[in-house]
Amino acid sequence: MVRVPKMIPVSDLREDVAGVLRRVQESRELLVITQRGRAAAVVLSVREYERGEYERQVLRALARGEQEIAAGAGYALGSVFEEADALLNADEQ
Fold first, then answer.
1. Residues 10/14/16/22 CA torsion (nearest 10 deg)
2. Which mean pLDDT values do the consecutive 10-residue runs of the chain (93 residues) have?
3. Which secondary structure element, helix H or strand E, spans residue 89, and what is its range?
4. Helices 46-70 and 77-92: crossing angle, nearest 10°?
5. Which strand (E) or helix (H) includes residue 90?
6. Distance of CA 83 to CAs 10, 40, 87, Å?
7. Domain count of the chain?
8. Which domain holds residue 39?
9. Is residue 1 in a domain?
10. Is the residue at 23 inside a domain?
């Protein structure tokens, strides 16, 4: 199920920046800031931003691996597992 992000006008953000930031951090969801009725920016907690960046890194590594396999290149399975473990352990720290 696709979640529709919460949206608030920039005027509400100006009136209560601290409250908006607290809600974003607590909800772990992004918040779309609108200006003149149109999406202008996205606010996201640092934790969620970092999680998203980590997920993108993993997806890039998988895509790179698929390209290497298709090209007949690749790595030993053990080294792939070592790299995956290192990425997973880095996320936990």
1. 60
2. 85 94 90 95 93 92 84 77 85 60
3. helix 77-92
4. 170
5. helix 77-92
6. 43, 38, 6
7. 2
8. 6-44
9. no
10. yes
